[in-house]
Design brief:
Blueprint: H1 2-17, H2 32-36, E1 38-44, E2 47-53, E3 58-64, E4 70-80, E5 86-96, E6 99-102, E7 108-111, E8 116-120, E9 124-131, E10 135-139, E11 146-150
Antiparallel strand pairs: 1-2, 1-11, 2-3, 3-4, 4-5, 5-8, 5-9, 6-7, 9-10, 10-11
Length: 154
């Protein structure tokens, strides 16, 4: 009886110690690559973000202020770090809209050319706090944790 109790306690502590992400899951039969692939959405400062992470490592992010008002997009590649604890994003930021600048007095001036601004961004590194088939919780050094939900119909 004592041996089975000790074995059970060792098993419990072993599984708890092996948990990869701070907020779970404790155990999953699906690989991290399979779980992260898909379309994810969240709201961040009243902007709806949609991430598409594809099997071929393509990454697409679209941001909308409302259903009709496009805000920006990012297109590039995603990957994990060696420990699969960080999500790495290399992308080009694009925004098509009216642009603003400030004059010498600090007044905001609108520049109406509806041009496209594209910027190659440095690699973004997001710490993964939770990765299940339906939830992706990530954060980086300048942001809080953002909780994405997987879209079932994509």
């Amino acid at each position: 009886m004592k041996i089975s109790t000790y074995f059970f306690l060792i098993l419990i502590f072993g599984l708890t110690g092996c948990k990869k992400y701070e907020d779970g899951p404790w155990i999953s039969l699906t690989s991290k690559e399979k779980r992260i692939v898909g379309e994810w959405t969240t709201n961040k400062n009243e902007i709806e973000l949609t991430w598409k992470l594809k099997e071929n490592k393509d990454f697409i992010e679209n941001a909308y202020k409302s259903e009709e008002e496009f805000y920006y997009s990012r297109n590039g590649k995603w990957d994990f770090d060696n420990n699969k604890e960080m999500l790495l994003i290399n992308a080009i930021f694009s925004r098509t809209s009216d642009f603003y600048y400030f004059d010498e007095n600090g007044n905001e001036i609108e520049y109406n050319d509806n041009g496209t601004l594209q910027i190659m961004q440095p690699e973004f590194q997001y710490k993964i706090y939770r990765l299940t088939k339906d939830e992706l919780w990530i954060g980086n050094s300048t942001e809080a944790v953002y909780k994405y939900k997987k879209n079932k119909n994509h």
